[in-house]
Amino acid sequence: MSANPRSYKTRAIVLRARNLGEADKIFTLFTDARGKLDAVAKGVRRAKSQVAGRLEFANEAQLGMHRGRNLDIITSADITHSRFASVTDPAAYATAHLLAELVDAFCEPDLPMPDVYALLEGALAALAGAAQPAALLPRFQLRLLDALGFAPPGDACVACGDSLAGHAAWADLDAGGLACERCRPHRADALALNAEDVANFQGLGAARSGRVRPVLNATPAAARAIDAFVNYHLGKRPKSRTMLEDLAHLPALREASQSANG
């Protein structure tokens, strides 16, 4: 029996898709067994396609796959969880795209990462009942960095090792963690966190089974610091972040427009 069969099944979350030729699409998937991979769904853009509606963005599906020479081929798809309806709200849609973009950007192809799969699966599920979807991001980002081995330690100074409990700290991006007042980076753009922000930062990155109690909501300063660490390790600012910021400004713009027209 072959150790690498041509046909196999896998559970996968749809991260994105792009057109190929006249009727096909290439889907970037995050799978539970193989990590990230690209696969072709042949004829998926035709009206009679049996799998098109099952491969919507953010859906989780059980896929039948066939190993191809360059790209694997999706031969069947059965929905496990349909996330598409829960992310039609603009804020949830933008948040889901940022979650997917981060996993896509950080994870290497064909590298199994079950912790990241479970993290993404849980975050997408939480979007359905979130009053403020973007509030899910800071904890997701820190837990993702932890799964990748990039987590910035928040309990002690990254330079000297002194405890940060009850103290202010500064985000030292080059050193990969928080620094105390004595070791802080002396740059104009250094992000400062007060003692409450530091405790919040620790709680956002805490595992559920650890000694630090996990928290779900970030203070503004902690959220900015986490974004900075993500951007630093990614080497760029995620494109979906701009979409989220534009949505955050919409209520104020509408209010200003109504006042001007009133």
Give structural notes.
There is one protein chain. The protein is of the alpha+beta class. The strands form two sheets. It has a five-stranded mixed barrel. Strands 7-6-8 form a three-stranded antiparallel beta sheet. A hairpin with a 3-residue loop joins strand 2 (24-31) and strand 3. The radius of gyration is 21 Å and the shape is elongated. It has six helices and eight strands; from the N terminus they run βββββαααβββααα. The chain folds into two domains: 7-82, Nucleic acid-binding proteins (OB fold (Dihydrolipoamide Acetyltransferase, E2P), Beta Barrel); 87-249, de novo design (two linked rop proteins) (Up-down Bundle), CATH 1.20.1440.120. Helix 3 runs parallel beside helix 5. The chain has helices spanning 90-106, 114-127, 137-148, 195-205, 220-234, 239-261; strands at 7-20, 24-31, 35-41, 60-66, 72-81, 169-172, 177-179, 192-193. Residues 251-262 have low confidence and may be disordered.
Q: In angstroms, what is the radius of gyration?
A: 21 Å
Helix coverage percent of residues? Answer: 25-40%
The level-1 CATH class of the largest domain: Mainly Alpha
Distance between the termini: 75 Å
CATH architecture tag of the largest domain: Up-down Bundle
Beta-strand portion reads 15-25%
Instruction: Tally the helices.
Output: 6
What is the SS-derived class? alpha+beta
The description of the largest β-sheet is:
5 strands, mixed, barrel
Looking at how many chains there are and whether they match, the oligomeric state comes to: single chain
Number of domains: 2
Mean pLDDT: 89
Tally of strands = 8
As laid out across the biggest beta sheet, the strand order is: 1-2-3-5-4
CATH superfamily of the largest domain, by name, is Recombination protein O, C-terminal domain
Q: Could you state the order of secondary-structure elements as H and E? A: EEEEEHHHEEEHHH
- CATH topology of the largest domain, by name, is de novo design (two linked rop proteins)
Overall form = elongated
